[in-house]
Amino acid sequence: MTDLQTRFLIVGAGMTGLAFANFIDHDDFLVIEREDEIGGWCKTERRDGFVWDYSGHFFHFKHPDIEAYLRERMPDEKIVTVEKNSLIYLDGHHVDFPFQKNIHQLPRERFVDCLYDLYFRDESAGKADSNSFKGMLYEKFGRAISELFLIPYNEKLYACDLEDLDREAMGRFFPYADIEEIIRNMRRPDNTSYNATFTYPLGGAIRYVEALARDVPDDRILLSDGVQSIDPNKRVATLESGRTVSYNHLISSAPFDRLLKMTSLPHDPSVFTSNKVLVFNLGFDRKGPPGVHWIYFPERDLSFYRVGFYDNIMGADRMSLYVEIGLPTDAPIDVDSARNQVLRDLATVGIVDEHQLLAHHDVVLDPAYVHITDDSRRSHDLLSQTLNCAGIYSVGRYGGWTYCSIEDNILEARQLANHFNRLTHLTG
């Protein structure tokens, strides 16, 4: 006999799980969360007057109804709308993002190299597997653009060889541009991208999470007790506390590889790889560079790949940063040593100059970015079909083993909930 019973068992109280709980037209659900608070990687930390997230979580709404749904559940929260200003740091110079559309801002010799290699990009054929992400970069942008920014930056971010990734690993989020766009941008700048405008609550990204949790009864969320194992045949989940939950349908936003371990579904674990990201949130005594929202750093001798400026987003009077370092998932971490290196590197690139560090916070996101390959796509599709037949649905960025936005997660959760809502309507 099981301890608990529910029609919908939702594994994970992040944006995806809470969105499903919002949109399912049924009261019989239970959200299970291993951590002692909701939010997943969308948590917010507050220290000494600074407001930080577990890395930068900025919302790029393409569906007004989703944004309106969240805003009506947070009527007292001040939300700023920001037109993004992002830069690339390269050899002491700043170039507007995206790099490939702004090569004319480089010193003349490098600009000529980039333009020449872009025009004769066929000469880069064979430098990498054409079916890989690295091969796609050489194919579309040539050697110089690829090797100056696109390859080193993304290798720092993913912490792997880009030849191991599928050529469409970033999908619609990669800022493609053809020669005509690149040339036109030299006279008529157009650096729009999927996140050209974003919104952010002054209380931090957790406010959006709390908006989704507002209508979910407290007794439907079980914190500090993760799922240990799942018996797909009996449709019973065993929790870390030893309690058991029987369910009709299980909706998981846990990383897909961890879900496979929970269910003991036979698979090749080497297919599903990812990186982790060490995030430092840093608060200083005074302002730093004005106007910029984040800067990309492709240079391999700098520890971080991106630095973001909360103070320029929130209109604060002290510099408040998030700093991201991509690492292999098995890499050891010495937090104090890494923070000291970050502070030295921030001084090297001119972001800090005799600034006093007033407060800091660190967190490791693991997984952070999944490695999307032909094998991972194929295996995820096949294994998902098996799980679906057993009433288990793996959703969200990590459940889907994909690269997507937070809004995409909400939309996917709503679509799945509406699927069940229609079934309920048809069967009564």
What is the oligomer described by this structure?
single chain
Radius of gyration: 23 Å
CATH H level, superfamily name of the largest domain: FAD/NAD(P)-binding domain
Count of DSSP-assigned helices: 12
Q: Unreliable segments (pLDDT under 50, ≥5 consecutive)?
A: none
CATH architecture of the largest domain: 3-Layer(bba) Sandwich
Protein structure class: alpha/beta
Query: In total, how many beta strands?
Result: 18
Mean pLDDT: 94
Describe the fold and architecture.
The longest helix is centred in the middle third of the chain and has 26 residues, at 133-158. Strands 1, 2, 9, 10, 11, 12 and 18 form a 7-stranded mixed sheet that branches. The protein has a 7-stranded mixed sheet with strand order 7-6-14-15-16-13-17. The protein contains 12 helices and 18 strands. By secondary structure, it is of the alpha/beta class. It folds into 3 domains: 4-43 and 64-75 and 203-271 and 371-427, FAD/NAD(P)-binding domain (3-Layer(bba) Sandwich), CATH 3.50.50.60; 87-184, no CATH class; 275-365, Alpha-Beta Complex (Polyamine Oxidase, Chain A, domain 2). The model has no long low-confidence stretch (mean pLDDT 94). It starts with a strand and ends with a helix.
Features:
32% helix, FAD/NAD(P)-binding domain, 12 helices, seven-stranded mixed β-sheet, Polyamine Oxidase, Chain A, domain 2, alpha/beta
